[in-house]
Amino acid sequence: MAEAAQISTNAPMTSSRRTYNRALARFVRHRLALFGLAAIVLLVLLCAVGPYLWPYNDLRIDIRHRFAEPFSGAHIFGADELGRDLLARLMTAGRVSLTVGFAAMAISTVIGTFIGTIAGYFGGIVGTALMRFVDAVLCFPSIFLLLALAAFVQPNLLAITLVIAATAWMEVARVVEAQIRSLRERDFAVAAQALGASDAHIMFRELLPNAIAPIVVASTLNVARAILLEAYVSYLGYGIQPPTPSWGNMLNNAQEYLSTAPWLALLPGLFITLAVTGFNFVGDGLRDALDPRLDLP
Amino acid sequence: MAQYLLLLWLVSIIGFAVLHLAPGGPLAQFTLIPGMTAAQLKVIAHQMGLDRPLPVQYWEWFRRMLVGEWGRSYRDSQPVLSVIGAHLWPTLELMVSSTIIALLLGTWVGVLGAIRRYSVFDYLATVGAMVALSVPTFWFGLVVIYIFSVKLAWLPPGNLYTIGDGSFLDYARHLIAPSLVLALVTIAIWSRYMRASMLEVVNQDYIRTARAKGVPERRVLIRHTIRNALLPMITIAGLQLPTLLSGALVTETVFTWPGMGRLFLDSIGYRDYPVVMGILMFSAILVLIGNLLADVLYAVADPRIRLD
What SS3 class is residue B72? Predict the structure, then answer.
């Protein structure tokens, strides 16, 4: 938000105090991004390495320890209705959810960047048609579209990832289109054209590298979105199917046990929130750091 | 206007493509009937016109959609539109009440954040909004149910009303938790945009003029600043519709709320494709109408803009 140079209303603040507070604001935002990064690194490490160190297996059923409470025994986060260790399940589920998140981000970024570049570079009828198509897809509430598509495919990891990517590429396309449209008028692009460079060369070798910053921001925020979408669709029963755990499908029947075993509902949700907040904080920090308005005169 | 018609057309093409993505397409339900042979399927496909070229099929489907013939539910043979109509009211109720909550709270947070920029409140609102956008709606719903229904027993854990009761108060009590849960994301978005919009307006010449004329500060804030800052919010509200509908689906599932979202999920479970497609198209058209309304309202509210 371009408000850095604006004056606030007559809040009773001396100017030195305001300067101090603004510095504090930057620092806090910066720290939020660092916090987000730390949360992501911790979660990734926990899910990647954790299962090798933790003595319990996520699939081992242990009826004696059904509904074991958190922090009470060997099961540090308790156990579920089949006596499976919750931490072990959270770690394996995290592998699935984070993988889906990153993979869907990568695919949707590629689709969005491609469509946005084509639309922004050629403009005219092609550009208008592509961007109206983006608008039309955005008319569908994402969860409705996601569920309709997910219900039609075999619910395996790859299909769910593709379906999520298919409902999350539009924002990237919009960002890239706007960038490319303004970049292609710049001297270096005109020069490349005058030198006889091909359209593909100008698009992907000249323009796109200059649009990397907003793409990085958008794709970071897209990881957050993809993790959330996976959680929604799995919670509703059409995403990752048990016994493969994901953070979303762990909450699938947790509502039944809400009064007797609330940790089954609370902990997976906390992990989702932590991961999504982490990526959103980092994305926001990156946006501040790489503000495209700063490098475009 | 032309732009909205173009969008409607594109939306219908996407809908038609999704329809034909279904395994077996619209024939799926018949393949499940025991003793069904390939020859019989072919006859049914011919009767349904599924052996004709795709553009012809699309045109037929689009024409029927325009005149309100959206097919019949596989489950109870009711026309799709009347099935949707029967479930529309609870969803609208939920969306309207949560929008009112979000408008009031979001505006308040945004205005306060803008006039006390960089204060502790402003930080908390900024961080809070980002966290609110990161919390899965269904999980927030579970947390609300756990705290307010299981632990405190203040609010009912779901449903439209208590069976045997049906008083207005009972309805209202059931509406509180789901509308709050649904409002969370909207509050977060609304407050951020409101704050930015306030900061934009504060620097306008007419605000300086008002101050120079000696208009009391309170009046400058309410009559001149907030009123003008609310203008662009009309567009934002229109753009929020898809998010709100998605949230409603999830909220309805958590709170066993018999609305359109629940109907959609149930229909997917029953492979009731006409209803699934109907709701998908209906929600997209609802979003289109919402955006159109926001455009018109904006033009009405802002005399500088004229519709052509």
Answer: strand
Cβ partners under 8 Å of residue A257, min gap 6: A67, A81, A264, A265
pLDDT in tens, B2-22: 788 888 888 888 888 887 766
Give me the half-sphere count of Cα atoms (radius 13 Å) on the Cβ side of residue A142: 21
Distance CA A87, CA B40 (A): 53
Query: What are the structural domains of chain A?
Result: 2-295 (1.10.3720.10)
pTM of the model: 0.85
In sequence order, the 6+-apart residues with CB closer than 8 A to the CB of A256 are none
Tell which B residues from 67 to 96 touch A, by Cβ distance under 8 Å.
Answer: none
Alpha helices in A82-238 (DSSP H): 86-122, 124-139, 142-152, 157-166, 170-183, 187-194, 199-201, 212-235
- Show the DSSP H helices in chain B as ranges: 2-21, 28-31, 38-47, 54-66, 80-115, 120-134, 137-144, 168-202, 205-212, 217-219, 227-230, 233-239, 241-254, 260-269, 273-301
- Distance from chain centroid for Cα B273: 21
Distance CA A263, CA A86 (A): 9
Measured CA to CA, the distance from residue A124 to residue A92 in angstroms comes to 48
Diameter over CA atoms, chain A:
77
CA distance linking residue A246 with residue A292, whole number of Å? 36
pLDDT digits (tens, 9 = 90+) for B88-117: 888 998 999 999 999 899 999 999 988 888
Domains and CATH numbers, chain B: 2-60 (no CATH), 87-301 (1.10.3720.10)
> Which amino acid appears at position A53 of this protein?
L
Cβ–Cβ under 8 Å, residues A245 and A85: no
C-alpha–C-alpha distance, residues A61 and A59, integer Å: 6
CB-CB neighbors (< 8 A) of B20 in chain A? none
Contacts of B14 in chain A (CB under 8 A): 136-137, 140
Compute the nearest-CA separation of B43 from chain A (Å): 24
Q: Are A102 and A47 in contact (CB under 8 A)?
A: no
